[in-house]
């Protein structure tokens, strides 16, 4: 399903890698993190090429809600408590600098991308612990020098028990920005990287020999070294773009600020192009067997604004780390010339820019005072333990399910327009039955590391609960870390 962003811009296609070449830096991935890294490296005089498997911005960048904020959920109070005030300061500083760097790049390159200054607010509708957490977050943010304040009054059309608002934040059209930021860079599209060994980046179209290799491809596809598959899973969330305007529209509402609900059923809201972007209904990738997420989101919208109309719907996929912080910096101790930018949680805009700044500085040998908090080589047992256990259990359970569990139904029982893990010709298979009864049969074994895939009825895709790879109903890969489609 196409997002508002993809429907309102076209980006000219670029050529694929023409053959073997040498360069100083090779960036794998032409999303926001990859393009920004290449942009900053080029500004520093580092010869850089970007290798994109599909089209630039064709991954998660096109599905974001594009909020440029240093407010990343309830993070600062937790960071100060679990990692110490210095780490919280580094994280806050990196986020604020990232917003400033967006301003600079947009101005310097004259990028017309609907960049709009705005405040960003976390809110809760519950009393008690959530309200207290918001108050503590406001205090910690202020102590870190962020212009923030606690309030119980917002422009939202429902009562809140509290909100923390950060000022001087922004939002934009992510693909308009990406298009402008990529101007003049050497970017090869339709060039899938198959493997990386030392300084050799092998693609289906030739090999790039690079002194520095940057993995900015959402989820790193190299399993060892790095072991990112043991440290991250993915989450999906859903967005509706709602038309609130028009004569007689009851309850029409377009916020000036950006909002993110911290309650379990919290909604995300911002306006764009005269539409309200309403997000929510998140879940771990591969755990949406029942479906109906868009429907639930629309029901909630209609309860608030009975006459709103859906114009676009899409979903986003985010890499979640064990301790809630991104991995930005050296890929592993064994690979001194490799760098990684991943695990941005739900905050891809500022973390992409923070990653570009940290990795640029590492490559040109400049000290970056904010880099330590993002180091992929950090060890944070207290902050990671709970998530490590639950993540590990997921992987063990999903790997075991492939081997031991029988199919859930027979192919004949599958209604038209539905998919599922069923028995097909005596074997377990993933089957999608089109409205006309035509069957699409695939293996339910994820090509990444073998977990059993699950059908996602909202997206008509096969999703992996272990690390979040996704495939369309014909088996074509949509999201990594898997590098190939399913059979
Ligand atoms: Fe890792 Fe599927 S994404 S096993």
Structure report:
The protein has helices at about 5, 30-45, 75-85, 85-110, 130-145, 175-180, 295-305, 350-365, 380-405, and strands at about 20-30, 50, 65-70, 115-125, 150, 160-170, 185-190, 195, 200-205, 205-215, 230-245, 260, 270, 275-285, 310-320, 325-330, 335-340, 410, 420-425, 425-435, 440, 455, 460-465, 470, 475-480. Strands 3, 4, 5, 6, 11, 12, 13, 14 and 15 form a nine-stranded mixed sheet that branches. Strands 1, 2, 7, 8, 9, 10, 16 and 17 form an eight-stranded mixed sheet that branches. By secondary structure, it is an alpha+beta fold. Strand 9 (about 200-205) and strand 10 (about 205-215) form a beta hairpin. The chain is globular, with a radius of gyration of 22 Å. It is built from nine helices and 25 strands. It has three domains: about 5-65 and about 175-230 and about 325-380, FAD/NAD(P)-binding domain (3-Layer(bba) Sandwich); about 115-170 and about 235-320, D-Amino Acid Oxidase, Chain A, domain 2; about 400-480, Rieske Iron-sulfur Protein, CATH 2.102.10.10. The protein is about 25% helix and about 30% strand. Helix 2 packs parallel to helix 8 (about 350-365) and helix 3 (about 75-85) crosses helix 5 (about 130-145). The longest helix is centred in the N-terminal third of the chain and has 24 residues, at about 85-110. The mean pLDDT is about 95. The chain binds FE2/S2 (inorganic) cluster. The site of FE2/S2 (inorganic) cluster has 13 residues, from loops.
